[in-house]
Amino acid sequence: MLELEVKNVSKNFRGLQALKNVNFNIEKGKITGLIGPNGAGKTTLFNLISGFYKPSKGNIIFCGKNIANLKPFQRCELGIARTFQIPKPLRKISALDNVAVGFLYGRRHINNVSKARELALKLLEFTGLLEKKDFLAKDLGAEDHKCLELSRALATDPTLLLLDEVMAGLNPVETQRFLELIQRINNDNNITILIIEHVMSAINKLSDKIVVLNYGEKIAEDVPEKIVNNKLVIQVYLGEEKQDA
Amino acid sequence: MKRIKIYFLIIAYLILILIPLFTDSSYFMHIMIITYYIMFVSISWNILGGFIGQFSLGHAAFIGIGAYVATILLVNYGITPWLGLPLGGIISGCFAVIIFAPCFVLKGPYFTLATIALAATLRNLFINWDFVSRSIGIVLPFTDNPWIYMDFTSKKPYYFIILGLVSLLVWFVIVLDKSKLGFALKTVREDEDTAAAININPLKYKLITTFISAGLAAIAGGFYAQYIRYIDPDMMLINYSIESVLPAIIGGIGTVGGPILGALLLHPLSEFLRSSLSSYNSGVNLVVYAVVLILIIRFKPEGIIGWLNVKFENLIRKFVKK
User: Fold this and answer.
1) Does residue B25 sit within a domain?
2) How many structural domains compose chain B?
3) CB contact under 8 A, A113 and B194
4) Given this model, what pLDDT does residue A200 score?
5) A89, A125, B20, B196: least buried by Cβ within 10 Å?
């Protein structure tokens, strides 16, 4: 069953065409990777799916419903949650409340603040941020911010989770922890995941399918094993092989 | 620790309630009434400027609307201010929502500029508007029924009215601060994109907050008109907007106690400096006042409430140990 269909989506910023006729599907319960060199349009695509931009052309179908013109908060209500590439923590609020607000206003619509905090505690335990629950978000480190982003997105009870480079800049131990975390989110909670990542080893391990973007166009879509051997993808990442070398 | 603090606050509050029983100085009463009035305005400003982070410098406009609505209802139609105050609040709230809805496209300082323009425009409009008797202003009449028409000759009833209003407002803000709505406001303040990503419509909450904040400021304005008994368009000057912002900034922006502490500190301080220093040379009091403000902003830019809280806790600890 399809969770999300991106159909002929284009996005122009005045003269700059950030995305050209991008087509792909995401299946329910699967992890889809999204890769591409810098400026390929990955984050633009994320913003289109989560509603921060509207597509210049094309449709975005979520669970059979065209959502291309809905506002971000309306899409959250339908079950799309995202993290931001540059984490956007609520700086003057404790880590616990950063997550609790997701429970209060997300799809669970908890009306009781102490109940939301209770649920947030459980979630922080799951994501491994429990010890730092009382820290103000601004006092946390970069990897904790990434973890906080992930926790807050999960708190809204999504069916589709968009992860924008959650593992960028993490050390190998942290990366490993996040890998396991993302796999557990996918398996235990049956949440479909679309993930942007530059750490190739991570994305190969995680993904059921990888979509490759270059200059706003989809150049490949396949299982990870085939993507790493795809000539076009190698060319995009490493440049052309010199003929007379 | 928490209990000792609550006891301390209750005692301080009781002292404020009992003050009129021990003094007959109308000068002192006047300072206290204006302090509470500024506190009320500053707390209502803080809901919009502190909780949801929309920095308005146009609150004098809402104070003015509140004052004019209550006064015109009283003078032209004989409607009691007890009804005029909340009516002024509702009218001002609706007006603010209509004006601010398009303004919220602007972010940060640009929004602030729009609010300054709003107050300046409204003042000019009132100066040239016959219905509100132009720049002459309106004098509120005295009647025989002070309890119905809020026109007491003594300052004590006003003292208790504004103290009561402030108490209600503080209670409201304490509840708001801990409520689900409070969470939404702070989320929007910290990051609008994050808010939108977790199902919070930033514009919706900004408009709710605008209604509350402008409505409350108008209620304060209505009270001010009944107390001073004369209003003119100059009450919408930017000075009065700043007067409502300053206590919140000095005390601690976005906190419950900040504007309370700021108002208790600033207005009595400015009056004290005026009475004690202005005889030396005109303007000396203003210089000292400005220096105090600059020092606070320089060393405690987040407000003095957090700093004072820590000092107070240390003091209690010492005391308890002994």
Assistant:
1) no
2) 1
3) no
4) 83
5) A125
Instruction: Decide: A186 and A33 in contact? Cβ < 8 Å.
Output: no
Residue B224 located in a structural domain: yes
Q: What is the ipTM of this complex?
A: 0.89
Tell me the count of A-B CB pairs closer than 8 A: 81
pLDDT at A84 over 70: yes
Q: Using an 8 Å CB-CB cutoff, list residues of chain A that contact chain B.
A: 50-52, 71-73, 76-77, 81-82, 84, 88-93, 97, 100-102, 104-107, 111-113, 116, 152-153, 155-156
Q: By the 8 A CB rule, do A147 and A128 touch?
A: yes
- Is residue B312 a part of any domain in this protein? no
- Which residues from A are below 8 Å from B186, CB to CB? 90, 92-93, 101
**SS3 at position A187:** helix
CB contact under 8 A, B197 and A107: no
Q: What would the two tokens of residue A228 be?
A: 């790493």
Is B239 part of any domain? Answer: yes
Predicted confidence at residue A238, as pLDDT, reads 79
What's this model's pTM, rounded to 2 decimal places? 0.92
Q: Which residues in chain B have their CB less than 8 angstroms from residue A136's CB?
A: none
B199-232: pLDDT as tens digits: 999 999 999 999 999 999 999 999 999 999 999 9
